[in-house]
Amino acid sequence: MPPPPDAIDPIAEARRRWVEHGWVDAAPGMAAITSLMRAQAIVSRRVEVALRPLGITFARYEVLMLLSFSRRGSLPMSLIGARLQVHQTSVTNAVDRLEAADYVRRSPHAQDRRATIVTLTDAGRELAEKATEVLNRDVFSQPGLGPAGVEVLLGQLDDLRHDAGDY
């Protein structure tokens, strides 16, 4: 549903007030960061709505997909955290939930007693495939920008991530 014709963009209004208060140099950055955070919330909600009927979160989906892309369908837990760029506690939480639902299983590493291997089950592979179909159809193929806009956004986000040392 489109906003009413007299709707005010709260971020544009905040930017105007930043300028009004003399924070002219910071106003564009404030508007950009606030817009980025709002966009992230919008996208997260779309992903959540798409995955909810499958009983999975995006964090768990990412673990399943990472495992499905691996040659053996298994990886050490520490490598999962590194590849997904998340804290080990988040990986443990996601794997706990996936294991409880029989989508993955844990086993000790053959050579390193301190390490744990996480392996995708057949049910986990099926869920990953189904979730990917849903996300491709309902979210990824319709991101809210045209193809040119997506490429521009990717370039800008790549610059931001690179400057932050994300890779």
List keywords for this structure.
single chain, 167 residues, mainly alpha, 2 domains, three-stranded antiparallel sheet, 7 helices
Shape: elongated
Radius of gyration: 20 Å
The average pLDDT is: 95
**Which structural class matches the secondary elements?**
mainly alpha
Sheet of most strands: 3 strands, antiparallel
Distance between the termini: 39 Å
- How many domain modules? 2
CATH 2nd-level architecture of the largest domain: Orthogonal Bundle
Catalogue the unreliable spans.
none
Spatial arrangement of strands, main beta sheet: 1-3-2
Helix content: 55-70%
CATH class of the largest domain: Mainly Alpha
* CATH topology value of the largest domain: Arc Repressor Mutant, subunit A
Annotated CATH homologous superfamily of the largest domain:
Winged helix-like DNA-binding domain superfamily/Winged helix DNA-binding domain
Count of alpha/pi helices: 7
- How large is the share of residues in beta strands? 5-15%
- Strand tally is 3
Compressed to H and E, one letter per element, the order equals HHHEHHEEHH
Describe the structure.
This protein has a 3-stranded antiparallel β-sheet with strand order 1-3-2. Helix content is 63%, strand content 8%. The protein is built from 7 helices and 3 strands. β2 (104-108) and β3 form a beta hairpin. The protein has helices at 10-20, 27-51, 58-69, 77-84, 88-100, 122-140, 147-163, and strands at residues 74-76, 104-108, 116-120. It has 2 domains: 8-54; 56-138, Arc Repressor Mutant, subunit A, CATH 1.10.10.10. It is elongated and about 65 Å long. It is mainly alpha-helical. The longest helix is centred in the N-terminal third of the chain and has 25 residues, at 27-51. It comes from Nostocoides jenkinsii Ben 74. This is Putative transcriptional regulator. GO terms for molecular function: DNA binding; DNA-binding transcription factor activity. It holds the Pfam family MarR_2.
